[in-house]
């Protein structure tokens, strides 16, 4: 079967898993039934468990679904400690359902798959050795990739049923009141972990900092927690700001960021009380620095900034250029430190942030969003999941969710090395072209033809060379030539959900 973005899907697999093909970005206003977790009644005075191994033995059984959060990113110590115990206990047939998988988790996930401990995975993304391992067909069942909002939706609707959530926190009291704001391993917002704490049947908090009861402010509350375990160290907050959330000094990326800023300030949305979100990736994050000066020069202030938050964004808050920061995740220690000192930095969960099956998500109120891409094609479809070699090496994150903004800007270099970024067809469709308004490269910009208003406005702006998307694709091809057509086996190794739960694309096992 084919879907709305002309992607061929495995009909037998779709029917087996009960999926519908992606039909378009207009989700409508359906009525959905949410689920509730089981609750083990507790009237005791203490939920502290002597060791992590003891609590794993008490909670995890064959065939369960277990979850983790990725707020520590590459500084996470909790995941590997828990998975080491689970693998060594010989537990089998688990579904792994973290908010995302970072590089430090890869080797134990691969070991768990090889030993039959892990048989299913659902996540926002994966990179490195694990992405390569999955892309070569080494997991029995296809990985289900969901956006951050899509994961929240699936948890709330019962499509992901978490049996045990293992949540690393920088502090907790003896009954499980915890937050991300204080301690040696501060990471700020617990936005993704809050979904697991609310909906998992069993919740295990892992901390290196047990504080006096009652611990406030409580992001995760004692009413949600079954066990608290103290270990030596839960994470290294200095490693939060790495990889996709690095700050760039690359001249090409800075040039792109400067052009993105010109698009924003010349758009009809740059006015008092506008709202914005910047995605991960060097150029996208750098935009904030240019936008600050433009806001000062024009006397414009923003109503709110959303999403994964960086120190440059919290600096805007401190300066009064942004009234509120709606914080689902912090991308660096500076942003995390800001949470406990500024009451206008509001922690939000992933549902409030971006769930499409909601009574109103924050992404629905966005004026401007700046997102990165691995590839974008001449239909403005965006790939942030697979490389041009067909290997899984990215994450959906909040890409699809935030692309519902009034002005969605994709920023990417024309080519990376000897690989074209602008292509006739992306390797994997993650965000549909109907959601995208402008592509910004270091060479110039392309505006989606459906946005005639933006074409008219931006064609008159100095320093913004305007091309058609086809012209940019041809310029890229002229630089690097045409790519060799990828060859795949029949096996589907991953399914890409759109934010409403339909399937927008699939990833097949790559041939060597």
UniProtKB/TrEMBL annotation:
Q: InterPro entries from the entry?
A: Citrate_lyase_asu, NagB/RpiA_transferase-like
Q: Where in the cell is it found?
A: Cytoplasm
What top-level branch of life does the organism fall under? Bacteria
Which terms under GO biological process does the entry name? acetyl-CoA metabolic process
Coarse class of the protein's main subcellular location: cytoplasm
Under Pfam families, the record lists: CitF
Q: Which UniProt keywords apply?
A: Cytoplasm, Lyase, Transferase
EC number(s) for this protein?
A: 2.8.3.10, 4.1.3.6
In its UniProt record, a GO molecular function of this protein is: citrate (pro-3S)-lyase activity
Query: One GO CC term of this entry?
Result: cytoplasm
Q: Which reaction does it catalyse?
A: citrate + acetyl-CoA = (3S)-citryl-CoA + acetate; citrate = oxaloacetate + acetate
Q: Which NCBIfam families match?
A: citF (TIGR01584)
State what protein this is by name. Answer: Citrate lyase alpha chain
Query: Could you read off the lineage of the organism from its UniProt record?
Result: Bacteria, Bacillati, Bacillota, Bacilli, Lactobacillales
